[in-house]
Amino acid sequence: MIIRPEQPGDEEAIGEITEAAFAGKDYSDQTEHRIVTRLRAAHDLTISLVAEDEEGIIGHIAFSPVTLSGGEKDWYGLGPVSVRPDRQGEGIGARLIRHGIARLRDLGAQGCVVVGSPKLYPKFGFGHHAGLTYPDLPAEYFMILPLRGPVPSGIVAFHPAFYGSAA
Ligand SMILES: CC(C)(COP(=O)(O)OP(=O)(O)OC[C@H]1O[C@@H](n2cnc3c(N)ncnc32)[C@H](O)[C@@H]1OP(=O)(O)O)[C@@H](O)C(=O)NCCC(=O)NCCS
User: Fold this and answer.
1) Would you state the pLDDT for residue 164?
2) Is the pTM of this model over 0.85?
3) Could you write out the DSSP letters of every residue in 3-51?
4) Are 146 and 111 in contact (CB under 8 A)?
5) What is the pLDDT of residue 121?
6) For ligand 1, atom 8, which residue shows the shortest CA distance?
7) Which residue in 28, 85, 149, 158 has its CB near the most CB atoms, within 10 A?
8) Closest CA to 79 of 64, 89, 93
């Protein structure tokens, strides 16, 4: 299995994997595949990696810029991350997350945020920082991975693509 950047022609498979991964999940509204499409259309799919083996594309992860209320730059959001349902639990998601974080470091990112399971993301160094928050969500589901420098205080907003608009 290899992890590689998204290439032209991967779009449909990425959409299918994302839709299938989140299908039926009670924490999902089943629109995550559209977030990826909107990020791509907005040219804000900063990092888009696929996991691929002889069966084709079996996993995908996206990173995109987030906005901090204090105006700090170079912060990114992780997600969506998806592994084909019949291939989950094999370590593919972990490899996608680790590769993505390494790419963020290469880009000089200050840090990364994620909304997701507090059981999953601390394995990759994500944690809670009281000063940097995400509105309208129980605090345990919002986690931060500082990569350079201190964690600023403020409120985080994901890319508009996460809220139904590519603007
Ligand atoms: C979440 C997801 C990407 C993880 O990928 P995966 O290939 O199944 O995960 P891995 O096999 O690499 O497991 C990584 C670790 O996370 C744990 N883990 C996996 N999915 C988890 C979940 N949903 N909640 C909590 N822990 C989880 C595993 O137990 C494993 O821990 P371990 O290394 O201590 O054994 C995948 O299960 C998926 O596509 N789920 C549906 C979509 C989704 O929920 N995406 C994330 C939204 S925040």
Assistant:
1) 85
2) yes
3) EEE--TT-HHHHHHHHHHHHTT-TT--S-HHHHHHHHHHTT---EEEEE
4) yes
5) 98
6) 88
7) 158
8) 64
Contact, 139 vs 131, CB < 8 A?
no
Helix (H, G, I), strand (E, B) or coil at 69: coil
- Give all domains of the chain, ordered by start, each with its CATH number: 2-163 (3.40.630.30)
Region of residue 41 (phi > 0: left; psi between -120 and 50: alpha; otherwise: beta): alpha
Using the mean position of ligand 1's atoms as its centre, give its distance from the Cα of residue 154 in Å.
Answer: 29
Give the closest residue (by CA) to ligand 1 atom 46: 81
**pLDDT mean for each 10 residues of the chain (167 residues):** 98 98 92 96 98 97 98 97 98 98 98 97 96 94 96 97 76
DSSP 124: G
CA distance 23 to 30: 6
Torsion angles phi and psi, residue 53, rounded to 5: -140, -160
Mutate which of 81, 86, 98 for ligand 1? The one with the most ligand atoms within 8 Å of its CB, which is 81
Is there an atom of ligand 1 within 6 Å of 82 CB?
A: yes
Cβ of 93 closer than 6 Å to ligand 1, yes or no, is: yes
